[in-house]
Amino acid sequence: MMGQLELNENMMEQLELNANMMEQLELNANMMEQLELNANMMEQLELNANMMEQLELNANMMEQLELNAYMMEQLELNVYMMEQQLELNANMMEQLELNANMMETEREHDGATRTERVHDGATRTEREHDGVTRTEREHDGVTRTEREHDGVTRTERLHDGVTRTERLHDGATRTERLHDGATRTERLHDGATRTEREHDGATRTEREHDGVTRTEREHDGATRTERVHDGVTRTEREHDGETRTECLHDEVTRTEREHDGATRTEREHDGATRTERLHDGVTRTEREHDGATRTECLHDGVTRTECLHDGATRTERFHDGATRTERGLWRS
Description:
Elements: H1 2-102, E1 104-109, E2 114-119, E3 124-129, E4 134-139, E5 144-149, E6 154-159, E7 164-169, E8 174-179, E9 184-189, E10 194-199, E11 204-209, E12 214-219, E13 224-229, E14 234-239, E15 244-249, E16 254-259, E17 264-269, E18 274-279, E19 284-289, E20 294-299, E21 304-309, E22 313-319, E23 324-330
Antiparallel strand pairs: 1-2, 2-3, 3-4, 4-5, 5-6, 6-7, 7-8, 8-9, 9-10, 10-11, 11-12, 12-13, 13-14, 14-15, 15-16, 16-17, 17-18, 18-19, 19-20, 20-21, 21-22, 22-23
Region (Disordered): 107-292
Coiled coil: 5-68
Keywords: Coiled coil
């Protein structure tokens, strides 16, 4: 009996061991299934990656197709433009043939000068070259034009019945002169300075700009005026035969000077203080107002007088070389 019990216990242990092995086998089977599932997922990911690459390739192909379509349109446009150009060239050739039939041409060479005269029914043209100077004269019924080049200076003269124009360019200076019967105008540009002179019979005007300073001078027979602006200071001077006036403005201070032969006057305003100085040959007067205090000083060669008024107090001082006097008036 004891032997049977031991045998039964051994069998029970064997059964438990078998049960554990069965559980292990089931676990191994589950792990195998998981590995297969992972392998399937990896294959799916690779397939998705291949599909993404295919989509990118398709997008690139679509862009290429659009580019090809645009290039085809461009080629069609180029073909159309070529056809238009060829048609225009054909028309121009026909026009040239027609002009050749219509134009009368005369050429002359006397050993020193070559001369060519052309008349196409509307315009008469004469070209001349004497070895030094090339000259071209043209008249189209309205405007007479003459162009001249002597190797140094280019000259062009035009007259349309109203205005005479002359342009010169010598490599350094450009000059243009105009005369319309009423006004004479001359413009010069030497690369650094632009100058314009104008005379209409009554007023002479000259404008100058050198890149930094603008200058304008005007003379109408009675008054001479000069305006200068150098980027910082604006200056205006005027002389009408009796009075000289000068105004300066440097963005901070305005200054005006006047001289009429008898009295010199200077007015200054810097935004805070107004100052006026007068000298009539006998008395010097200076008036100042800074917004709070009014000051007036007079000196006639004998007596100095100073008057101050600050809104509350009036003060008056005199000095005649011997006596000093001061009077004050205060508000209570």
